Amino acid sequence: MTPDHPQPPHIPEPTGAPATTTSAATPTTPAPAPAAPGGSRATDGQRATDGHRAPVLHHRVDGPPDAPVLLLGPSLGTSLAVWDAQTAALARHHRVVRWDLPGHGGTPAGVLPTAPGATTVADLADLVLALADRLGAERFGYAGISLGGAVGAHLAVHHPERITGLALVCSSARFGAPEAWRERAALVRTEGTEPLAAATATRWFTPGFATTPTAGRLLADLRAADPDGYAACCDALAAHDLRDALGRITAPTLVVAGRADPATPPAHSRELADGIPDAGLLELAGAAHLAPAERPQAVLTALLDHFGAPSGDDGDGGRHARGMAVRREVLGDAHVDRAVARTTALTADFQDYITRCAWGEIWTRPGLDRRTRSCITLTALVAHGHLEELALHVRAALRNGLTPEDIGEVLLHSAVYCGVPAANAAFATAQRVLAEDTTG
Predict the structure, then answer these.
(1) pTM of the predicted model, to two decimals?
(2) Mapped to the 3 state alphabet, what secondary structure does the chain carry?
(3) Is the pLDDT assigned to residue 348 strictly greater than 60?
């Protein structure tokens, strides 16, 4: 994600990234990881691999090997982890390929020349095509955030025969004045990405989301980015201007905007949607620049609909898989693993029921975001005095973006409608859980 569209002040605005560390001085290239359950595999990029082969972007593949391919491109300053919230559900219907920009995540900066001004969006697009070729993907869907979106738009203009569908998330046909990007590149080449970190949070996230663990992980990737690779991507953004070519995009296109995005404001998305024939436009309230992180379910629903995998009824197996993914995201792997391990012949049907119905049907509905669902769940548990379950959902509420102060407000509100004794017990439970969370 790129905090595209830098602002006037002295230092060009930053952008953040998820938590995959790469050494700026000596990028590491671990051996490819074995396939994970469900067909997931990570592969590292290298400058010159396999004899005469072109450099390969670090990437991760999830989903059935024979499913339609869907490439997911990241924003400046982030790694492929920026798509974590959408990957499991998308991978039920697609072979999902996430990749890292040069100098980000697992891709070394040296996959492209890093001299000032040497890198363009076309160079990045060539690397993505090389990756698709390596994976045997002659045609593929493509979704990208910010700079990742610019790469997708370039591919749709210049290689239309390869693109089956396109989604541009918080992106732009032109990311502001070139000079601001060149200034940012120069700053990062001399001082690294740390000077960008403070301003990035206000561009990537709304104030209520900026202090969440998810935001912290994304900002950690910005700090871990290789300065040369990051600066090269700034050079690519400086030279990018696709405004006059938007009419040449023929792939079915969805444009997604965050209404609170200061990096690529909604006007940029409207320009894309107006310029691309028959493009759809979705504007998300409560989202800044990294909408897939801040409004994960809304972005997921839009992508599933756009790329031909409706999020509606896909049978008990599909609801169970969808529910298990969300259950793990909300409650944490450790809790879910314990629950699964304790399953017996007596409880198996109940475990299946709550996974399919509570998590696969209700928690996955797009009408409410997870923060709101956490508030409702906490209140209901207070009302019925289910304190053990309340403790579990206090932890879940923190994962869903609520702060301890938010949780306190929910419990205070519940005192009016559920009774003071119930709220008193709830505050004691929440205080214990929050103290445990603080002390580790």
Answers:
(1) 0.66
(2) CCCCCCCCCCCCCCCCCCCCCCCCCCCCCCCCCCCECCCEEEECCECCCCCCCCCECCEEEECCCCCCEEEEECCCCCCHHHHHHHHHHHCCCCEEEEECCCCCCCCCHHHCCCCCCCCCHHHHHHHHHHHHHHCCCCCEEEEEECHHHHHHHHHHHHCHHHEEEEEEECCCCCCCCHHHHHHHHHHHHHHCCHHHHHHHHHHHCCCCCCCCHHHHHHHHHHHHCCHHHHHHHHHHHHHCCCHHHHHHCCCCEEEEEECCCCCCCHHHHHHHHHHCCCCEEEEECCCCCCHHHHCHHHHHHHHHHHCCCCCCCCHHHHHHHHHHHHHHHHHCHHHHHHHHHCCCCCCHHHHHHHHHHHHHHHCCCCCCCHHHHHHHHHHHHHHHCCHHHHHHHHHHHHHCCCCHHHHHHHHHHHHHHHCHHHHHHHHHHHHHHHHHHHHC
(3) yes
